[in-house]
Amino acid sequence: MNDTDFWHIVAVTNRTARYQRYRAEDLEYHLSKLSSELIIEFDILFHKLVYQADIGDVYGAGCLLHQDYMSDDGFLYFRYWLVSMGQAAYEEALRNPDSMAMLDIVHDRDGRPDVSDEDYCYAIYKAYEKVTGKRITDAPRESDPANLAEPVWFDWAYYTHEVMAEKFPILWQNYLAGQLDKDAARKVFTVSSEGISGEG
Q1: In the chain, what is the straight-line distance between the N-terminal and C-terminal CA atoms, in Å?
Q2: Who has greater pLDDT, 45 or 71?
Q3: Residue 85, by phi and psi: left (phi above 0), alpha (psi -120 to 50) or beta?
Q4: For residues 60 and 97, is the Cβ–Cβ distance under 8 A?
Q5: pTM assigned to the model
Q6: Cα distance between residue 83 and residue 116, in whole Å
Q7: What's the mean pLDDT in 98-104?
Q8: What is the 3-class SS of the chain, one letter each residue?
Q9: pLDDT tens-digit map of 145-154
Q10: How far apart are alpha carbons 46 and 90 in whole angstroms?
Q11: Residue 49: per-residue pLDDT
């Protein structure tokens, strides 16, 4: 499986899923029609893309889009979601993270952007188990994302209000600066020794 094949499956899944919350379910369905070898190759490419998106500016922009800070796990599930949005959205987000402000974002009942999809990754594992009766973590493979070069380290504390407003002007305007109480908006993100943190 090559990159074109991978993104084709993602695109087909996005077309057949009625709503974003069904993407993982539809991905599992489409992958379960493939051989176990192809599912493993899809998994390898998926995690490669997730690792490639482990970039400081993607994290900073993602926090604005998420309207809160993201923990390690939260940022991981955000990157799952980013891959699920398709090739064009993913590649443009890595080139210009502020471009995520232009995506067609689904919002939850509280009006917050729904930009996390933990189940998207697990859909790959479920499909493999459905096809083989075994866990994908036990499957032999020629290459593994764990062998990729480590992502560039970034300092979460670097992403202050001023930095984010300058780097991601559209996201800042859409999700923080436009709020009526700007002082309250700026308190959504605070910076500590742990990096970006939030009040809620």
Answers
A1: 42
A2: 45
A3: alpha
A4: yes
A5: 0.86
A6: 11
A7: 93
A8: CCHHHHHHHHHHHHHHCCCHHHHHHHHHHHHCCCCHHHHHHHHHHHHHHHHHCCCHHHHHHHHHHHCCCCCHHHHHHHHHHHHHCCHHHHHHHHHCHHHHHHCCCCECCCCCECCCCHHHHHHHHHHHHHHHCCCHHHCCCCCCHHHCCCCCCCCHHHCCHHHHHHHCHHHHHHHHHCCCCHHHHHCCEEEECCEEEECC
A9: 555 656 667 7
A10: 12
A11: 96
- In the predicted structure, residue 194 carries a pLDDT above the cut 80: no
- Which of 22-26, 95-99, 181-185 shows the highest mean pLDDT? 95-99
Distance CA 194, CA 71 (A): 10
Q: Encoding tokens for residue 96? A: 């210009």
Q: What is the pLDDT of residue 43?
A: 95
Distance CA 200, CA 189 (A): 9
Close Cβ partners of 59 (under 8 Å, ≥ 6 residues apart): 70, 75, 154, 156, 159
Amino acid 92 reads E
Closest CA to 165 of 89, 68, 66, 98: 98
Per-residue tokens: 78:
């955000």
